[in-house]
Protein backbone atom coordinates (compact mmCIF):
# COMPACT_ATOMS: atom_id res chain seq x y z
CA UNK A 1 0.00 0.00 0.00
CA UNK A 2 2.85 2.40 0.84
CA UNK A 3 4.47 1.71 -2.53
CA UNK A 4 1.21 2.45 -4.35
CA UNK A 5 0.73 5.67 -2.37
CA UNK A 6 4.33 6.71 -3.09
CA UNK A 7 3.90 6.03 -6.81
CA UNK A 8 0.63 7.98 -6.95
CA UNK A 9 1.76 11.03 -5.00
CA UNK A 10 5.38 11.28 -6.14
CA UNK A 11 5.25 10.06 -9.73
CA UNK A 12 1.81 9.69 -11.31
CA UNK A 13 0.10 12.88 -10.10
CA UNK A 14 3.08 15.18 -10.87
CA UNK A 15 3.43 13.52 -14.28
CA UNK A 16 -0.30 13.93 -14.95
CA UNK A 17 -0.13 17.61 -13.97
CA UNK A 18 2.84 18.38 -16.23
CA UNK A 19 1.61 16.38 -19.25
CA UNK A 20 -1.94 17.74 -19.01
CA UNK A 21 -0.75 21.35 -19.07
CA UNK A 22 1.66 20.83 -21.97
CA UNK A 23 -0.73 18.77 -24.10
CA UNK A 24 -3.48 21.31 -23.47
CA UNK A 25 -1.21 24.17 -24.57
CA UNK A 26 -0.15 22.32 -27.73
CA UNK A 27 -3.64 21.25 -28.76
CA UNK A 28 -5.09 24.64 -27.86
CA UNK A 29 -2.79 26.16 -30.49
CA UNK A 30 -4.26 23.86 -33.13
CA UNK A 31 -7.80 24.47 -31.88
CA UNK A 32 -7.69 28.28 -31.81
CA UNK A 33 -6.14 28.71 -35.26
CA UNK A 34 -8.53 26.10 -36.67
CA UNK A 35 -11.52 28.01 -35.27
CA UNK A 36 -10.12 31.32 -36.57
CA UNK A 37 -9.99 29.75 -40.03
CA UNK A 38 -13.57 28.51 -39.85
CA UNK A 39 -12.80 24.83 -39.25
CA UNK A 40 -15.29 22.81 -37.20
CA UNK A 41 -13.53 20.88 -34.44
CA UNK A 42 -15.14 17.54 -33.55
CA UNK A 43 -13.03 16.64 -30.52
CA UNK A 44 -10.41 18.09 -28.17
CA UNK A 45 -8.81 15.25 -26.23
CA UNK A 46 -6.30 15.18 -23.40
CA UNK A 47 -4.91 11.64 -23.39
CA UNK A 48 -5.61 8.74 -25.70
CA UNK A 49 -7.90 5.71 -25.68
CA UNK A 50 -11.33 5.37 -24.06
CA UNK A 51 -12.95 8.51 -22.69
CA UNK A 52 -13.09 8.99 -18.92
CA UNK A 53 -15.02 12.25 -18.73
CA UNK A 54 -16.12 14.86 -21.25
CA UNK A 55 -18.68 17.38 -22.37
CA UNK A 56 -19.93 19.00 -25.59
CA UNK A 57 -19.70 22.76 -26.09
CA UNK A 58 -22.09 24.95 -28.10
CA UNK A 59 -19.91 24.63 -31.22
CA UNK A 60 -20.25 20.83 -31.25
CA UNK A 61 -16.75 20.11 -29.95
CA UNK A 62 -16.35 17.18 -27.56
CA UNK A 63 -13.87 18.14 -24.81
CA UNK A 64 -12.62 15.05 -23.01
CA UNK A 65 -10.04 13.35 -20.83
CA UNK A 66 -9.06 9.85 -21.93
CA UNK A 67 -7.64 6.84 -20.12
CA UNK A 68 -4.00 6.89 -21.24
CA UNK A 69 -2.30 10.17 -20.22
CA UNK A 70 0.13 10.18 -23.15
CA UNK A 71 -0.41 12.94 -25.68
CA UNK A 72 -3.70 14.22 -27.00
CA UNK A 73 -5.29 15.40 -30.20
CA UNK A 74 -7.69 17.81 -31.86
CA UNK A 75 -9.90 16.00 -34.37
CA UNK A 76 -11.25 18.34 -36.99
CA UNK A 77 -14.23 17.90 -39.25
CA UNK A 78 -13.14 15.94 -42.31
CA UNK A 79 -10.47 13.95 -40.47
CA UNK A 80 -10.70 10.19 -40.82
CA UNK A 81 -8.73 9.64 -37.61
CA UNK A 82 -6.71 11.40 -34.91
CA UNK A 83 -3.70 11.65 -37.25
CA UNK A 84 -5.70 14.16 -39.36
CA UNK A 85 -5.77 11.93 -42.41
CA UNK A 86 -8.66 13.00 -44.68
CA UNK A 87 -11.88 11.11 -45.18
CA UNK A 88 -12.40 9.87 -48.73
CA UNK A 89 -15.20 11.96 -50.19
CA UNK A 90 -17.71 10.62 -52.70
CA UNK A 91 -16.44 11.42 -56.18
CA UNK A 92 -13.26 13.06 -54.82
CA UNK A 93 -10.97 10.88 -56.90
CA UNK A 94 -12.64 12.00 -60.12
CA UNK A 95 -12.86 8.50 -61.62
CA UNK A 96 -16.66 8.47 -61.74
CA UNK A 97 -16.86 5.53 -59.34
CA UNK A 98 -18.82 6.40 -56.19
CA UNK A 99 -18.20 3.08 -54.45
CA UNK A 100 -15.85 2.82 -51.46
CA UNK A 101 -12.35 1.80 -52.53
CA UNK A 102 -9.89 0.94 -49.74
CA UNK A 103 -7.00 1.56 -52.12
CA UNK A 104 -8.12 5.16 -52.66
CA UNK A 105 -8.69 6.37 -49.13
CA UNK A 106 -8.19 5.71 -45.43
CA UNK A 107 -11.85 5.68 -44.41
CA UNK A 108 -13.59 3.72 -47.15
CA UNK A 109 -16.63 3.11 -45.00
CA UNK A 110 -17.21 6.85 -44.55
CA UNK A 111 -17.48 7.76 -48.25
CA UNK A 112 -20.16 10.41 -48.87
CA UNK A 113 -20.62 13.72 -50.61
CA UNK A 114 -20.15 16.82 -48.45
CA UNK A 115 -22.55 19.74 -48.62
CA UNK A 116 -21.25 23.25 -49.29
CA UNK A 117 -21.70 24.10 -45.60
CA UNK A 118 -19.75 21.03 -44.55
CA UNK A 119 -16.97 21.82 -47.00
CA UNK A 120 -16.72 25.31 -45.50
CA UNK A 121 -16.05 23.77 -42.08
CA UNK A 122 -13.79 20.95 -43.28
CA UNK A 123 -10.09 21.17 -42.48
CA UNK A 124 -9.10 19.40 -45.70
CA UNK A 125 -11.05 21.85 -47.88
CA UNK A 126 -9.11 24.86 -46.56
CA UNK A 127 -6.31 26.46 -48.55
CA UNK A 128 -2.87 24.94 -48.08
CA UNK A 129 -1.68 28.06 -46.28
CA UNK A 130 -4.54 27.81 -43.78
CA UNK A 131 -3.85 24.12 -43.12
CA UNK A 132 -0.15 24.89 -42.72
CA UNK A 133 -0.95 27.60 -40.12
CA UNK A 134 -3.31 25.32 -38.18
CA UNK A 135 -0.74 22.53 -37.93
CA UNK A 136 2.15 24.88 -37.14
CA UNK A 137 0.09 26.49 -34.35
CA UNK A 138 0.58 23.49 -32.02
CA UNK A 139 4.39 23.65 -31.80
CA UNK A 140 4.25 27.45 -31.85
CA UNK A 141 1.94 27.40 -28.82
CA UNK A 142 4.58 25.34 -26.99
CA UNK A 143 7.30 27.85 -27.91
CA UNK A 144 5.13 30.80 -26.86
CA UNK A 145 4.34 29.06 -23.56
CA UNK A 146 8.07 28.67 -22.87
CA UNK A 147 8.78 32.32 -23.72
CA UNK A 148 5.91 33.57 -21.55
CA UNK A 149 6.96 31.43 -18.57
CA UNK A 150 10.59 32.57 -18.85
CA UNK A 151 9.46 36.19 -19.22
CA UNK A 152 7.54 36.15 -15.93
CA UNK A 153 10.33 34.24 -14.17
CA UNK A 154 12.93 36.81 -15.28
CA UNK A 155 10.57 39.60 -14.29
CA UNK A 156 9.66 38.28 -10.82
CA UNK A 157 12.42 35.90 -9.73
CA UNK A 158 15.35 37.08 -11.80
CA UNK A 159 18.06 35.66 -14.00
CA UNK A 160 20.79 33.48 -12.53
CA UNK A 161 23.99 35.27 -13.44
CA UNK A 162 27.54 34.20 -12.75
CA UNK A 163 30.54 36.06 -14.07
CA UNK A 164 32.75 33.81 -16.27
CA UNK A 165 35.55 33.97 -13.74
CA UNK A 166 37.37 30.83 -12.60
CA UNK A 167 36.66 30.28 -8.91
CA UNK A 168 38.33 26.87 -8.62
CA UNK A 169 40.36 24.51 -10.78
CA UNK A 170 39.86 20.77 -10.30
CA UNK A 171 43.05 18.79 -9.85
CA UNK A 172 44.23 16.75 -12.85
CA UNK A 173 41.47 18.15 -15.06
CA UNK A 174 41.77 19.44 -18.64
CA UNK A 175 41.66 22.99 -17.25
CA UNK A 176 44.58 22.40 -14.87
CA UNK A 177 46.63 20.72 -17.59
CA UNK A 178 45.89 23.64 -19.93
CA UNK A 179 47.15 26.15 -17.34
CA UNK A 180 43.95 27.75 -16.00
CA UNK A 181 44.33 29.67 -12.74
CA UNK A 182 41.83 30.94 -10.17
CA UNK A 183 40.79 34.45 -11.12
CA UNK A 184 41.07 33.97 -14.89
CA UNK A 185 38.15 35.54 -16.74
CA UNK A 186 36.93 33.68 -19.83
CA UNK A 187 36.35 36.14 -22.68
CA UNK A 188 35.61 33.83 -25.60
CA UNK A 189 35.66 30.21 -26.74
CA UNK A 190 36.56 29.56 -30.38
CA UNK A 191 35.73 33.19 -31.09
CA UNK A 192 32.31 33.08 -29.41
CA UNK A 193 31.99 35.74 -26.72
CA UNK A 194 31.20 34.63 -23.17
CA UNK A 195 29.11 36.95 -20.99
CA UNK A 196 28.05 34.50 -18.27
CA UNK A 197 29.46 31.29 -16.86
CA UNK A 198 26.24 29.63 -18.04
CA UNK A 199 27.24 30.44 -21.65
CA UNK A 200 30.52 28.61 -21.12
CA UNK A 201 28.71 25.57 -19.72
CA UNK A 202 26.46 25.31 -22.80
CA UNK A 203 29.41 25.46 -25.17
CA UNK A 204 31.29 22.78 -23.26
CA UNK A 205 28.18 20.53 -23.39
CA UNK A 206 28.45 20.44 -27.18
CA UNK A 207 32.20 20.16 -27.63
CA UNK A 208 32.53 16.55 -26.40
CA UNK A 209 36.00 15.46 -27.57
CA UNK A 210 36.77 18.54 -29.67
CA UNK A 211 39.61 20.87 -28.75
CA UNK A 212 38.62 24.40 -27.71
CA UNK A 213 40.64 27.59 -27.99
CA UNK A 214 39.80 29.70 -24.94
CA UNK A 215 40.58 33.38 -24.68
CA UNK A 216 41.10 34.55 -21.10
CA UNK A 217 41.98 37.74 -19.28
CA UNK A 218 44.66 37.37 -16.59
CA UNK A 219 46.15 40.33 -14.72
CA UNK A 220 45.11 42.67 -17.51
CA UNK A 221 46.71 40.56 -20.25
CA UNK A 222 44.92 38.46 -22.86
CA UNK A 223 46.01 34.83 -23.15
CA UNK A 224 44.92 31.89 -25.29
CA UNK A 225 44.69 28.37 -23.84
CA UNK A 226 43.72 25.15 -25.61
CA UNK A 227 41.99 22.21 -23.98
CA UNK A 228 39.67 19.33 -24.79
CA UNK A 229 36.70 18.45 -22.51
CA UNK A 230 36.64 14.99 -20.98
CA UNK A 231 33.57 12.87 -20.29
CA UNK A 232 32.83 12.58 -16.59
CA UNK A 233 30.12 10.34 -15.15
CA UNK A 234 27.63 12.65 -13.45
CA UNK A 235 24.61 11.53 -11.45
CA UNK A 236 21.46 13.50 -12.29
CA UNK A 237 18.62 14.18 -9.87
CA UNK A 238 16.90 10.88 -10.74
CA UNK A 239 20.02 8.83 -9.95
CA UNK A 240 20.97 8.11 -13.56
CA UNK A 241 24.65 8.24 -14.48
CA UNK A 242 25.10 10.49 -17.52
CA UNK A 243 28.51 10.85 -19.25
CA UNK A 244 28.91 14.64 -19.34
CA UNK A 245 31.62 16.84 -20.91
CA UNK A 246 33.64 18.73 -18.28
CA UNK A 247 36.75 20.93 -18.40
CA UNK A 248 37.30 21.10 -14.65
CA UNK A 249 36.60 24.65 -13.54
CA UNK A 250 34.02 26.03 -11.14
CA UNK A 251 32.63 29.50 -10.57
CA UNK A 252 31.24 31.36 -7.61
CA UNK A 253 27.60 30.95 -6.65
CA UNK A 254 25.19 32.64 -9.09
CA UNK A 255 23.28 35.78 -8.18
CA UNK A 256 19.66 36.45 -9.12
CA UNK A 257 19.07 39.70 -10.94
CA UNK A 258 15.52 40.83 -11.67
CA UNK A 259 15.07 42.28 -15.13
CA UNK A 260 12.83 45.05 -16.37
CA UNK A 261 9.97 44.38 -18.76
CA UNK A 262 11.98 45.04 -21.92
CA UNK A 263 15.06 43.13 -20.78
CA UNK A 264 12.87 40.24 -19.56
CA UNK A 265 11.13 40.10 -22.94
CA UNK A 266 14.46 40.03 -24.80
CA UNK A 267 15.97 37.62 -22.30
CA UNK A 268 13.09 35.14 -22.51
CA UNK A 269 13.37 34.95 -26.31
CA UNK A 270 17.17 34.74 -26.23
CA UNK A 271 17.10 32.01 -23.58
CA UNK A 272 14.46 30.03 -25.47
CA UNK A 273 16.50 30.16 -28.67
CA UNK A 274 19.68 29.17 -26.81
CA UNK A 275 18.01 26.14 -25.20
CA UNK A 276 16.43 25.14 -28.52
CA UNK A 277 19.81 25.36 -30.25
CA UNK A 278 21.42 23.25 -27.52
CA UNK A 279 18.62 20.67 -27.73
CA UNK A 280 18.80 20.32 -31.50
CA UNK A 281 22.58 19.98 -31.52
CA UNK A 282 22.51 17.37 -28.75
CA UNK A 283 19.87 15.40 -30.70
CA UNK A 284 22.04 15.68 -33.80
CA UNK A 285 25.03 14.30 -31.90
CA UNK A 286 22.93 11.39 -30.63
CA UNK A 287 21.66 10.60 -34.13
CA UNK A 288 25.18 10.68 -35.58
CA UNK A 289 26.52 8.49 -32.78
CA UNK A 290 28.86 11.11 -31.31
CA UNK A 291 26.83 11.14 -28.10
CA UNK A 292 25.35 8.31 -26.07
CA UNK A 293 21.62 7.71 -25.61
CA UNK A 294 21.72 7.89 -21.81
CA UNK A 295 20.14 11.35 -21.90
CA UNK A 296 17.06 10.13 -23.78
CA UNK A 297 14.07 9.49 -21.59
CA UNK A 298 10.41 8.59 -21.99
CA UNK A 299 7.30 8.73 -19.82
CA UNK A 300 8.97 7.06 -16.84
CA UNK A 301 11.78 9.58 -16.72
CA UNK A 302 9.40 12.48 -17.23
CA UNK A 303 7.38 11.17 -14.29
CA UNK A 304 10.53 10.92 -12.16
CA UNK A 305 11.64 14.43 -13.05
CA UNK A 306 8.13 15.76 -12.45
CA UNK A 307 8.15 14.25 -8.98
CA UNK A 308 11.56 15.74 -8.20
CA UNK A 309 10.43 19.17 -9.41
CA UNK A 310 7.35 19.01 -7.18
CA UNK A 311 9.62 18.25 -4.23
CA UNK A 312 11.69 21.33 -5.07
CA UNK A 313 8.70 23.65 -5.20
CA UNK A 314 6.38 25.45 -7.60
CA UNK A 315 9.15 27.45 -9.31
CA UNK A 316 10.98 24.25 -10.27
CA UNK A 317 7.75 22.72 -11.62
CA UNK A 318 7.04 25.78 -13.77
CA UNK A 319 10.63 25.90 -15.06
CA UNK A 320 10.47 22.18 -15.89
CA UNK A 321 7.19 22.62 -17.77
CA UNK A 322 8.74 25.45 -19.78
CA UNK A 323 11.69 23.26 -20.79
CA UNK A 324 9.48 20.28 -21.57
CA UNK A 325 7.11 22.46 -23.59
CA UNK A 326 10.02 23.67 -25.72
CA UNK A 327 11.16 20.09 -26.30
CA UNK A 328 7.62 19.02 -27.19
CA UNK A 329 7.42 21.79 -29.77
CA UNK A 330 10.79 20.86 -31.28
CA UNK A 331 10.00 17.15 -31.48
CA UNK A 332 6.67 17.82 -33.15
CA UNK A 333 8.41 19.78 -35.91
CA UNK A 334 10.54 16.81 -36.96
CA UNK A 335 9.54 15.99 -40.57
CA UNK A 336 8.04 12.62 -39.70
CA UNK A 337 4.50 11.81 -40.91
CA UNK A 338 1.99 11.55 -38.00
CA UNK A 339 3.92 14.37 -36.30
CA UNK A 340 3.10 18.00 -37.08
CA UNK A 341 6.36 18.34 -38.99
CA UNK A 342 5.33 15.54 -41.32
CA UNK A 343 2.05 17.28 -42.13
CA UNK A 344 3.93 20.51 -42.77
CA UNK A 345 6.28 18.66 -45.13
CA UNK A 346 3.28 17.34 -47.08
CA UNK A 347 1.83 20.86 -47.31
CA UNK A 348 5.14 22.26 -48.57
CA UNK A 349 5.16 19.56 -51.26
CA UNK A 350 1.55 20.43 -52.11
CA UNK A 351 2.43 24.12 -52.41
CA UNK A 352 5.40 23.36 -54.68
CA UNK A 353 3.47 20.86 -56.85
CA UNK A 354 0.26 22.88 -56.96
CA UNK A 355 -1.69 19.85 -55.79
CA UNK A 356 -1.56 17.34 -52.91
CA UNK A 357 0.73 14.35 -52.97
CA UNK A 358 -0.99 11.16 -54.20
CA UNK A 359 -3.01 9.48 -51.47
CA UNK A 360 -0.96 6.30 -51.77
CA UNK A 361 2.24 8.28 -51.12
CA UNK A 362 0.70 10.00 -48.10
CA UNK A 363 -0.65 6.71 -46.75
CA UNK A 364 2.78 5.09 -47.10
CA UNK A 365 4.34 8.08 -45.36
CA UNK A 366 1.94 7.82 -42.44
CA UNK A 367 2.65 4.12 -42.02
CA UNK A 368 6.41 4.70 -42.04
CA UNK A 369 6.05 7.64 -39.66
CA UNK A 370 3.92 5.64 -37.25
CA UNK A 371 6.49 2.85 -37.20
CA UNK A 372 9.29 5.35 -36.51
CA UNK A 373 7.39 7.06 -33.70
CA UNK A 374 6.42 3.75 -32.08
CA UNK A 375 10.01 2.52 -32.39
CA UNK A 376 11.32 5.69 -30.72
CA UNK A 377 8.71 5.41 -27.97
CA UNK A 378 9.67 1.77 -27.37
CA UNK A 379 13.36 2.68 -27.28
CA UNK A 380 13.03 5.47 -24.71
CA UNK A 381 10.67 3.33 -22.64
CA UNK A 382 13.25 0.53 -22.69
CA UNK A 383 15.92 3.11 -21.77
CA UNK A 384 13.85 4.04 -18.73
CA UNK A 385 13.20 0.47 -17.61
CA UNK A 386 16.81 -0.66 -18.10
CA UNK A 387 17.88 1.84 -15.45
CA UNK A 388 15.77 0.04 -12.84
CA UNK A 389 16.89 -3.41 -13.94
CA UNK A 390 20.56 -2.48 -13.60
CA UNK A 391 20.22 -0.68 -10.25
Model description:
- The chain is an alpha+beta fold.
- It has 2 domains: 2-153 and 321-389, no CATH class; 159-257, Roll (Pdz3 Domain).
- The protein is 49% helix and 19% strand.
- Mean pLDDT is 85; it is low at 91-111.
Topology:
Blueprint: H1 2-36, E1 41-56, E2 62-76, H2 116-120, H3 128-156, E3 159-161, E4 168-169, H4 174-178, E5 185-189, E6 192-193, H5 197-207, E7 212-218, E8 221-227, E9 230-235, E10 241-246, E11 249-250, E12 255-257, H6 261-287, H7 299-312, H8 314-332, H9 340-353, H10 359-389
Antiparallel strand pairs: 1-2, 3-12, 4-11, 5-6, 5-7, 7-8, 9-10
Helix pairs in contact: 1-3, 1-7, 1-8, 3-6, 3-8, 3-9, 6-8, 7-8
What are the main properties of this structure?
391 residues; alpha+beta; Pdz3 Domain; 4-stranded antiparallel beta sheet; elongated
